[in-house]
Amino acid sequence: MTPALYGLFLLGLLSGTLITMSSTHWLLAWIGLELNTLAMLPLISRYYHPRATEATLKYFLVQTTASTIILFTATLNAWYTGQWTISHPAPTLTTIALTASIMFKLGIAPLHLWYPEVLQGAPMTAALIIATWQKLAPLSLAYMTLHLVSTNFLVIVGVTTIAIGAMTGLIHTQTRKVMAYSSIGHMGWLLIALLLSPKIATLTVMVYITTTTAAFLVLTNTRSNTITTMGTSWPQGPTCLLMMALNLLSLAGLPPLLGFAPKLLIIEDLTHNGLAPLATTMILLGLPALYYYVRLAYFTLLTMPPMTHPMRVMKINRFPPSSPLMTTAALLLATMPLPLIAILYEIV
What we know:
It contains 17 helices and no strands. By secondary structure, it is mainly α.
């Protein structure tokens, strides 16, 4: 794929997301989602590999199915109410179908089974885009239609998503699948944050995208596809792998790293609203996720591959010249001071 063509597809991703996020009309939102899907498919299949082809087909089927349901519900809503406005109250049937389609696009449980498989088969850069940028358009639709859905239903779905993301990630050793279940778990936290406050939800999205991007940058730079290869990459780039460990602990929500702030605000807000049992449940469900984050950090920092000439291996550097830039970016993204987060929270 030529750089010009690659840039054209990235422009399509940008345009599709902005169209969906800025529209209040269902047809414009649907057009933005379709543009997003069509621009993403060549990025997943840019390398001619059976797994990439399989991931492309799965992504196409999932996204087109969800977009078709959205178009059907929008048409049905216009038939019943005469309105194409996204935030307009809708009948129960269309609300259920719309909620399911948005959950499908976001990879929220129980409609999440496609998500780890697509991320595993996609190239690392495409997996990064799917896990971060491609979440924004469906999230904007979820925010605009949140008042149409039962709060109890969303709480149950959010807690279930956190549990599945935490429990299922324990059994995988492929880094992209672990990051996929990490993303699923964070979607559960984000769903609860949407019910509490737009400020907390916005901050949660920003922190999630920031930390996930930093982690994927290091995985891309070190070509770490499994937990074992993360350990073998240490002699060739110790600083870069140290930043990866910080990003993993930040994703786990450990203080004083960046990922701690949104989880603290969510737990604090739940407690102030008299929902301490829900907050306790979310904390307990986050412990398995903490375990596999710490396990990844352990393999990154404290394991060394078998070698007979350590000093000679340390001189090998297969990383591209952008490694110092990636390392600096990962460090800044993982350890952004909490006072800055507080200022950001007040702004948004």
